What we know:
This protein is an alpha+beta fold. It is 19% helix and 30% strand.
Amino acid sequence: MFVLSVNRSAAVRRLIEGKWVLTGIGKQPVDGPVAVGPLGLDGDEQADPRVHGGLTKAVYSYPREHAAFWRQVRGQSGASAYDAELPFGLFGENLTTEGLVEERLWIGDRLVLPGCVLAVSEPRFPCFKFNAAMEFRHAAKMMVQSGFCGAYLGVVEPGVVSAGDPIRLEPGPREVNLRELFLARAGGG
């Protein structure tokens, strides 16, 4: 398990579904170490603090294992070619990971990285901004149906994170599985 990419963005105004809205979903990869504080990555902004950010949703991670699925559904929708590579940060994730798929994560699990410690706090629920980022109107629905939601993380020990960092999973109480919680709340399973 490791971090493939560290991504961040400033919140920007964007025309989505005929309205100008503030969004921070357009994350871009960052070279080198990035500071991680109680409210997230240094230089990263969330546009709507009612649903993103804060102490329990400071960092958003998304597993690269789902890339093939998203390439296929984006290709079927006409949003991109079937073989189009998905850029890191496309899902709005701060950390693109390998080895941390939702069914392996439980609320309270700790992710121990060389420079910080993060804790799994809750699944991410998609909105209309996700549809815009993925460039097709059923993307949020597909996230719900697939259960490929990614994980919000709280910062247990601030520090730094870099692409290539190994991740050691310290199991939490194993009471609530991330994917099962997402599907139950979203009505997808």
